[in-house]
Amino acid sequence: MRKLSLAKRSIAVGATSLAVLAMTGTAHAAPAQARAAAPSCVKVKVDKGIISQTAYVTNKCSSTKRVKVRWSFAPDSGCNTLKPGQKFKTKRGLAAQFDGLPLC
């Protein structure tokens, strides 16, 4: 049996890990992109602070909407049911970037 050097084993493990992550990321990313965006009557405003940022969402529609805030580099918010005039907010660290407001 041939022994691999520590460096070669590390490279092999890293390459395998990247392949697994790439396949996993692709499987999870497709459904999120397929969701319809919230209508324009659902408003979102993102305020960036010193160490965090907050997304404020307001339903200005005439009907109830179910939406969530999608973030890049951070977990998305949960699904929120908003009656006309209702609001919610969600806070993330500065590394996160607002990435959309899909229906859920």
TrEMBL record:
Annotated Gene3D superfamilies: Alpha-amylase inhibitor
Signal sequence, start to end: 1-29
InterPro entries xref list: A-amylase_inhib_sf
One Gene Ontology molecular-function label: alpha-amylase inhibitor activity
Keyword tags: Signal
Protein name, as recorded: Alpha-amylase
Provenance organism: Streptomyces alboflavus
